[in-house]
Amino acid sequence: MSDLSKEALAAGARAALEGIEGKALSPKDRLALPVQDMPCQDPVARGQNMHEVAQGYDEAQARIEANRCLGCKNAPCVSGCPVRVDIPGFIAEIQKGDFAQAARVIKRTNLLPSICGRVCPQEGQCQAPCTLGKSLKSIDKAVQIGRLERFVADWERSSGAAGAPAAGHATGKRVAIVGSGPAGLTCAVDVRRQGHEVVIYEAFQKAGGVMVYGIPEFRLPKELVRSEAGVLESMGVRFELNYLVGRTRKLRALLAEDGFDAVFIGAGAGLPKFMDIPGENLVGVFSANEYLTRANLMKAYDRPRAATPIYPSRRVAVLGGGNVAMDSARMALRLGAEEVHILYRRTREEMPARAEEVGHAMEEGVVFDFLSSPTRVLAGADGRCEALEVLSYALGEPDASGRRSPVAIKGSEKVLPYDTVIVAIGNESNPLLARTTPELKVDRKGHIIVDERQKTSIERVYAGGDIVLGAATVILAMGEGRRAAAAINEVLQ
């Protein structure tokens, strides 16, 4: 990551753009153009605020980065996108400076580009098969597709050019969407485009699902999520908030009594996993879900005005190596912790978190204790969490996931002081719907079982996203929402 300021990065891009303006670039010319770094807040400053860390490209940077694209006819990048965005198409429009048309190309298949451009793991999806990255023998040198997508979406919003897709002519058919996360919102848009009436039932008081309660403000500003929900409202989609399907109303009743012709379940995977070690029930031990929900959805960081308390911490241990662990650790710093450690049983190379998020956490001062994991939580005289007993590990042979398995080193236990522990080792499906709808088939982990069209074991009921996949990504959830919408639209013709 570059140490240059936003102004210096922009000036360099403008100079480079002047050098290529009006020229027909050869593949060799494109290979020689430098990757455009993303301007970011200063690490010391940003660790004390909730403002967005990454500040986005300016127009010159976006056009230089777009001109790195080779425009491959076979478009391998598209095959890596779960919603099949026409990536070469929108990048070609950026090259020409037609950002409005670039936005229209993206929105043919993706209504949430400002969100996807910020939080999707592009390096493992659309950027992984990029021909440029392979030619330069580095995924880091692939065309920065996510950053370009974000630029286009931000330009469209700031220019006032953003608009809602048109709803089709009313069909008289009604579709219920359970959950307003990325899968539910995407399904709702595609169904509404066909003219069907759509009602979204959301358990929380705000729409957006994990994008609101899970992903921090400094990574995904909540105004963007509110804006996307507003687009659906302008299309005529109705939101019913504080409505827990399975408790407020049974799933079967939506079809049998409320007159819906189809239901899509996009309720997410909101049941946190724990380590199952002694002391995990002590005061001072939190699931990442609770910790982040208090801070994000309920804005506990805004202490003078927040309606929810947040636990005061001095020395924090975060258990896990995914993006949620990075979010939790970085949030703890911003909430005033003096020292934050991430404990992970493997090394950085095996971490499932995005490299960018790991790098940001390290820059901000989060300490990474690799090859270590706790065996128990210890209480102090007041009965609260005071310390962790931590065991060291070495790496053994690869497991089924391809990652080398952690092997405990006997006798390596040590006690380390921590007054707060955040468990961020993943989530499982909430069992409420399965328990209240016995005919809804789930697997042993509680994930709803679906066919290739996202249809469940119940006629006219479809499902997608984390409730099917387990904890996945925003864009994968969106892909499942699109598939389900296509199936629903076909059935309701």
In CATH, the architecture of the largest domain is 3-Layer(bba) Sandwich
**What gap, in angstroms, lies between the N and C termini?**
51 Å
Counting helices, strands and paired strands, the structural category is alpha/beta
CATH topology of the largest domain: FAD/NAD(P)-binding domain
The pLDDT mean sits at: 94
**Largest sheet strand order:** 3-2-1-4-16
**Main sheet summary:** 5 strands, parallel
| Percentage of β-strand residues | 15-25%
The helix count comes to: 20
What is the CATH class designation of the largest domain?
Answer: Alpha Beta
Number of domains: 3
Radius of gyration: 23 Å
Shape: globular
Helicity range: 25-40%
Low-confidence stretches: none
What this model shows, in words?
- This protein has 493 residues and is of the alpha/beta class.
- The protein folds into 3 domains: 6-159, Alpha-helical ferredoxin (Fumarate Reductase Iron-sulfur Protein, Chain B, domain 2), CATH 1.10.1060; 174-270 and 428-491, FAD/NAD(P)-binding domain; 274-425, FAD/NAD(P)-binding domain, CATH 3.50.50.60.
- It has 20 helices and 16 strands.
- The chain has helices spanning 6-20, 27-32, 43-46, 59-66, 76-79, 87-96, 99-106, 113-119, 131-135, 145-159, 182-193, 210-213, 222-234, 251-256, 288-296, 323-334, 355-364, 432-436, 466-469, 474-491, and strands at 174-178, 197-201, 238-240, 262-265, 271-272, 285-287, 315-319, 339-344, 367-370, 372-379, 385-398, 404-408, 414-417, 420-423, 427-428, 461-463.
- A 5-stranded parallel beta sheet has the order 3-2-1-4-16, covered by helices on one side.
- Helix 11 links the parallel strand 1 and strand 2 (197-201).
- The longest helix is centred in the last third of the chain and has 18 residues, at 474-491.
- The model has no long low-confidence stretch (mean pLDDT 94).
